[in-house]
Design a protein that fits this description.
Structural class: alpha+beta
CATH superfamily of one domain: Winged helix-like DNA-binding domain superfamily/Winged helix DNA-binding domain
Number of helices: 24
Helix content: 40-55%
CATH class of one domain: Mainly Alpha
CATH architecture of one domain: Orthogonal Bundle
CATH topology of one domain: Arc Repressor Mutant, subunit A
Strand content: 5-15%
Distance between the termini: 67 Å
Amino acid sequence: MHAVDPKTLRFDVFALDLSRCLVRRGSQEIPLRPKAFDVLRYLAENAGRLVSKDELIQAIWRGIFVTDDSLVQCIKEIREALCDAEHRIIKTVPRRGYVFAVEVSSGVTLVESPAADEVRRRGGRSESDMSRWWHRFWVGAGVVLIIIGVVVGRHLLNKSSAPSSESVAALGQSSGTSQIPAPRQSIAVLPLVLLSEPSRDDYFADGMTEDIISALGRFSEISVRSRNAVFPYKGKTPRPEEVGRDLAVRYVLEGSVRRSAERIRLAVQLTDTARGVVLWSEQYDIEPKDIFAVQDDITRRIAGTLAIRLTSLELARITTKAPSNLEAYDLVLRGRDLLSRVTRNANSRARLMFERALALDPSYASAYVGLGLVDLSAVANGWTADADVTLLRVENLGRRALSLDSLSASARALLGETHLRRVEYDRALDEFRRALELNPSDADSHAGLGNALLCAGEIEGAIKALETAAQFQPYLRMSDYVGLGTAYLLAGRNADAIRTLERSLARYESIPYPHVILAAAYFEAGRQEDAAREAGTVRRLSPFFNSADYGSLFRHREHRERIASSLQKAGL
């Protein structure tokens, strides 16, 4: 008989400990990833009714883009953990959702039958059944739980090949088996809080945040959320646990900065959101010239605290390649801030900042990359008279940056974007892949790779790369939403295409291109009225739109013809 516990949900022979976020069967704790636990909890709290996939995704991944695959994987892991191979506990309603089909009690005494008590006494199963169950769980699901800050001398675990947006919990291993590779550590770096006058130093705090994100992204065993994912928290004071839940990360770095002409005061702390404890904190009171050494120290300390294994190349990349002139660094930060505003005036002002930085330090690679991004933005937005000449200049700037810093992931990504716009897909693919070798957490490089694969005709690879980009930032660029929607459409995944493009309209409703592919996806899904409505929106936003030209960049003829045919059927 179990004791009364209002923080526990009980069903069948299992108990959900809501305060500790774990599943128990008697005295046995059953490992489950945080997102899978959240799905199980939501279903248990809504036992007896049909819960749609859309409702689950909205409830568990609020504000984060995921496909049905993430939910299906969670359901699979839950069924493995509960030995529910016959779907007795969680029933699937085809094309609709799931029903939690057993009775759930909360905060009451639960009496189990003698048979159930015997099962628990024997650990839930016979020894042979238990051995097979653990083997299926650890090998099939590929999940490992690790403790951060392990005792000195314990072996580090190998990294997983796929990026993970999931948190990592306590280390677990089955009896008589060795430990298995751990998922990549996941972290979000919140915007540094500015303690000095906002109008003067706002760009400086934002720039330092971006530099820390970029530095941590160089490590293959750390999955770092992008700037676009964390900057919505700017000016807010969320609890680390809230950020961990919203962005699906285990660790959160937060801090503050105050700057004067003579001193920079920086305070940072790293929190384990799963346990609610601060793992490391530090306060720096330095001269401005020491800012790069502090950035390196923060990077090293985080890597050490998370006990990640560094390759020799990653060790070489820890040290920031600092400019010879501090004012040049300040100008680059100002230029980045202006570039993020995406207006013609801000673009022109950003160009002046990067040019002034190069005048002060002609060997500053980041300034060359910044100048290249100014030109690339001008091409993308139609602010240049000769795109071909401008793209040639961008390529030269990227090559110059690499000659000064061969480990610059941003320079590689700049070249990838340049080749993609010049329809040089193989060269673009090569540059994006090399950029990701240098910074595996760069969302824009993953997205660029996905768009290049899409145009080159590798549809499944494009979907994987663009979905990976979406794991690092909740909102993609407009072109990336369109790319992912198009890839889904070509793969016959109309529902995913519709969900992706409908989400994009929250930010890009006034731009015609998401409406274009959404119209085609609606038609292919049999929603002719919706397709006609979207086609009308396209004609209103872009009266001269020509569907015959829309897929002209695709390498394979069948892809061009499929897109053109879908658009024409949709009324475009």
